[in-house]
Amino acid sequence: MVAVLIVDDEQDLRSSIAMVLKDAGFDVVEAGDGAAALPILRDQAVDLLITDLVMPGIEGMELVRLLAGRARRPAIIVMSAHHGEERGAYLELAGRLGADRTLKKPFKARELLEAVRQVMAVKPA
């Protein structure tokens, strides 16, 4: 079973994403921010990280940067609700730092599942 870590400071959104992924057969773990995600990433086998970019404390961009240098790292999807050009620039930077896919909030469940299936299909074994 594919293990997914969802990191977002908005609990309602995090719970909604978790529900969609659990219904699709994924094993899901949640963290409210980057600081809470770090021990999970260190201590558990995570196949996919879905993270918000902008959060209090350790942001998603920092998680992407920290994972980019690892030989074995999870696939990474970043999401952002920033508006206009700022959001586009943040998502583009996340892609350059190592994110496999980006999503603009708000997104539909089918868009999320499509992104997950895409990154997991190309994830090296």
What does this protein look like?
This protein is α/β, with parallel strands linked by helices and 125 residues long. 48% of the residues lie in helices and 20% in strands. The chain has a five-stranded parallel beta sheet, with helices on both faces. The radius of gyration is 13 Å and the shape is globular. The mean pLDDT is 88.
For the structure shown, list the relevant keywords:
5 helices, alpha/beta, five-stranded parallel β-sheet, Rossmann fold, 5 strands, 125 residues
Q: Write the element-wise H/E pattern from the N-terminal end onward.
A: EHEHEHEHEH
Order of strands in the sheet with most strands = 2-1-3-4-5
Tally of helical runs: 5
End-to-end distance: 14 Å
Which CATH top level class fits? Answer: Alpha Beta
The average pLDDT score comes to 88
- Uncertain runs: none
Radius of gyration, CA atoms, in whole angstroms: 13 Å
Count every beta strand, where a strand is a DSSP E run of 2 or more residues.
Answer: 5
- CATH-assigned fold name: Rossmann fold
Q: Which outline best applies? A: globular
Q: Please, what is the CATH homologous superfamily?
A: Response regulator
> Main sheet?
5 strands, parallel
Give the class from helix and strand content and strand pairing.
Answer: alpha/beta
Helix content: 40-55%
> How many structural domains in the coordinates?
1
Our estimate of the beta-strand percent is: 15-25%
What is the CATH architecture descriptor? 3-Layer(aba) Sandwich
Task: Summarize this structure briefly.
This protein is an alpha/beta fold and 125 residues long.
